[in-house]
Task: structure prediction
Amino acid sequence: MSQRRQRGRPAGGSTGDTRAAILDAARSQFASQGYTGASLRSIAREAGVDASLISHYFGDKSQLLVATMELPVNPIEKITGVVAGGVDGMGERLLRTFLTAWDPHRDAFSALVRTQLASADAQVPMVQLMRDVVTHKVADVLEGDERKLRAALVASQLIGMALARYVVLLDPLPDTSVDDVVGRYAPSLQRLMDG
Amino acid sequence: MSQRRQRGRPAGGSTGDTRAAILDAARSQFASQGYTGASLRSIAREAGVDASLISHYFGDKSQLLVATMELPVNPIEKITGVVAGGVDGMGERLLRTFLTAWDPHRDAFSALVRTQLASADAQVPMVQLMRDVVTHKVADVLEGDERKLRAALVASQLIGMALARYVVLLDPLPDTSVDDVVGRYAPSLQRLMDG
Result:
């Protein structure tokens, strides 16, 4: 309860106040406990609200993490849609969905990477999102052996692509059409997915 | 000449002073002009030395860039060795050489990425090295169409792999043996190299 008072937000106040208190508590818990260590219950306790209220406002833990990041794109919705189609053609769907979603927000992506990677802390939200949410969702849909390793390699390729296209600006990648990038790159992703 | 005096290093002094003056001037020129814009002549002018002295001490422009970075690994020597073998099996050689060189220096790599990517400036040395040196050397040895795009994609995969293994720590990649990583990942690189 003391944390709630420290934050100066009455959790029993308006909807906006409650949401803000939950997001504050979530940022604090994800930073200190990591995505795996933090629980909706511990976040609710810090925010001084009932855990069911978090689910009501934000959904599950992964969606709460994304909400703390205030992104122009909702990666959970995107990745959930991609994996729902199964492993067939998932390399192309993953890459096309990622690029189509982020291409209009290149500057935001670049700023996000620069801010978050600069921290020596492995618990920054973007890393948690890639490592603890996206990679798991990909691994869950793969078949065959070493699914976790193959999912991590898929994620690493996606990270590399995004860095090269939006941050490091490896000519001619930033200006290559989505179709051309997908045509060249998706088969490599698919190969890892097929195992 | 005024710059030389500002830097307070007599270019005609000891070897150490001269080397330091050249490195200072190189850092300054690469930062302001970019790797492509900077020339050994302009760097020599700023350092107050003859351009031939730079070649004598450091070699060519790419080697001078690497010297300014004070890395525990010399990427120019590594990439030159890799491309010398031609495109056959280059995916495996590139990945194995990269990982074998940097695995003992994970922390240095991570610190380098965090420091340099945090800068919103596209002229940081590591980006210049990847974009203007390594990618070009790879493109030069490829055959077929879209060599520049394919080289950029190869570089992006290498960046993604390094980020995932050394910085973002995508489980289980940091602890996967070089042989296993190469076995899973090199075919994707080779596919892009073969076109």
Q: What stands out?
A: The longest helix of chain B spans residues 15-37. The mean pLDDT of chain B is 89.
